[in-house]
Amino acid sequence: MSWTRTFLAALGVCVLLLTGTSGCDSDAAREEGENGVSSSPVGKVLDDTDGEGRHLREVDEDDAPEVGIEVQPDPEGDGAWDVRLTLRDFRFSAAGAQTRAVAGRGLAHLYVDDRLVTRLRNPEYRLASGLVPRGTHQVTVRLYADDGTVWAVDGDPVESTAALTASAAETTAPPTADPSGPAVSAPGVRSRTGGRGSPDRAGKAS
Fold first, then answer.
1. Which domain of life does this protein belong to (predicted)?
2. Would you say 151 and 65 are in contact if contact means Cβ atoms under 8 Å apart?
């Protein structure tokens, strides 16, 4: 009956191998389920979203990009406003870039009173007068990765906001603020502190 013992031993080895393989596959699937959904090579995608429903991509403060915004009346005096961004540890991706998150890369969204005006791939923009009628408005810039997620630190989007007051009499540009120093308030433009994003790490915008 030696052949019977040999057959049973071989069968036992096969069962052991199949069980071990199944266990390994199960462990791998569990690890992917725990880490594959919310984690990525660049930061961690959170459940939290911005006003557009885009998920925040959390990164360490030391690795996070920063942005500041400066808004001034157009010198031509036609009611338009010049927007200039100051960036640190961030570069704009070219149009048509792959839809994946790359550290310190992406684009910016520009909002007026929480309404999306344009998507930027350069640090300057001319805000037409029709977008800022007479009154006070909040102009916000927010940084995004190329996959559409929002760069964030401590659960807050990387963004900066400036308040401006448009009037028919606005003909001269206010003093220029130094992005590396305290924000400057001037006629027609007010600074707001808060959020995450200013290159001086104080969250100020001018």
1. Bacteria
2. yes
